[in-house]
Amino acid sequence: MACSVSDTPALKDLPKVANDLKSQLESFNTGCLRDVDTNEKIVLPSAEDIAQEKQHSALLQDLEKFQPSVLRKTDTVEKVVLPNALDVAAEKTQKSLFDGIEKFDASRLKHTETQEKNPLPDKDVVAAEKAHQNLLDGVEHFDKTQMKHTTTEEKNPLPPKEAIEAEKEKNKFLNGIENFDPAKLKHTETCEKNPLPTKDIIEQEKTA
Hints:
By secondary structure, the protein is mostly helical. The chain contains six helices and no strands. The longest helix is centred in the first third of the chain and has 18 residues. The chain is extended and about 145 Å long. It starts with 18 loop residues before the first helix and ends with a helix.
């Protein structure tokens, strides 16, 4: 379809290019471009891709060459499974419940009035709340100027004489155990005695 002269837009109607962009395009130096070699790469399919393609082609060929005459005629048998006694009872219960909800007579409801109760606290609760509030007020409005200056004295009482003597005896005893010299022990021989019973003991044993 040929365009008439009247369809050509006027120069003033053409889109305008920004002055800075126009100056950049006009002063662009193509010599700044670098030469780049284009390498065309052809990626060969893998063995798995070839196997999948063959399998897909074989499937398509089998579908195209399929003969419907090979199919056997079969009769569809529709089986209707009857519900058991439990299913029937459950269905009846559910149906009666739905019927009761649908046919419910709202006029049989009794009119009730809702009473909002706000019990007041007892005497003990009020007293506890006042004591807690007074404590908070005392802490918040506490006047530090009423405090008196005090000096802290650190006391380190010394132990009495008896405690010092007991500590010395204990240390002496421990030092004696730690520094004990086994070489100072004397050699002794243990004699095991097995006394024979007397005549009276033998007679008592026989009598028993």
